[in-house]
Amino acid sequence: MKKLLAIIITLLAILPAWADSPKIVAHRGYWKAASGAQNSIEALAKADTAGIWGAEFDVWLTPDDVLVVNHNRVFKGVNMETSPIDSILAVTLANGETLPTLEAYLQEAQRHPDLHLVLELKPMVSGIEREDEAARRVAEMIEAYGVADRTDIISFSINMCLTFKKVGPKQCEVYYLGGNIAPKEIKRLCLDGIDYNGGDLDAHPDWIQQAHDLGLKVNVWTIDKPESKRRYTDMGVDFITTNTPTE
């Protein structure tokens, strides 16, 4: 009985630490387990297989109004913002996949109902009208595929954040990536949190507590070293985005 009581006391002591641990987001999917193919459908699937909480990926709107998943505006000589979809779909990733559309990505996501999706809306040099159109189309597709309750939206474009907040599903939380806006202003803009890089939070460590006091959440990126993950965990962030999600 004494041994059982000791075990219970130990579990009670460590449960709060578990509850407070940041959720882990695989940056561009779990691509280190997927032949180095960032933002591939394989990387999305393997994030779920590895038991990672969420997978982050990047979305562009092509000139012919197709949503595609890729990080860089220009990839293998093809411009996501100005090239027609036929040219984009001719591009292959490092694992041999065709560069995916968002529709294909969400079809795969439906096979992984426990995986959280962190969708980055990429800013568009063609103007805010195209940004608004991208936000609207993403919102419609998220609704159509039934993943709104497990999708967060992030963007460096404050315009895209605000547009999605207006037109997107209410279940989706929206986070600003830019690192240059204090939590009180993020709250005033009715966004749900900040998603800032480690350097921004190191420069403003008080923003973490300020965000929490305002009911906002905090993500930090891109944190790969175990000791850095521990440091930001101690600082109280809610999420850690990383290229090494299992380390």
The gist of it:
This protein has 247 residues and is an alpha/beta fold. It has ten helices and eleven strands.
Salient structural properties:
19% strand; TIM Barrel; 247 residues; alpha/beta
If you had to describe this structure to a student in words, what would you say it looks like?
The structure is a single chain. The chain is α/β, with parallel strands linked by helices. Helices cover 39% and strands 19% of the residues. It has ten helices and eleven strands. It has helices at residues 2-20, 41-49, 85-88, 102-109, 128-144, 158-167, 183-188, 198-203, 206-213, 226-235; strands at residues 23-26, 54-61, 67-69, 74-75, 78-79, 116-121, 151-155, 173-176, 193-197, 217-221, 239-242. It is globular, with a radius of gyration of 19 Å. 41% of the residues are buried. Residues 4-19 have low confidence and may be disordered.
Per-chain topology:
Blueprint: H1 2-20, E1 23-26, H2 41-49, E2 54-61, E3 67-69, E4 74-75, E5 78-79, H3 85-88, H4 102-109, E6 116-121, H5 128-144, E7 151-155, H6 158-167, E8 173-176, H7 183-188, E9 193-197, H8 198-203, H9 206-213, E10 217-221, H10 226-235, E11 239-242
Helix pairs in contact: 5-6
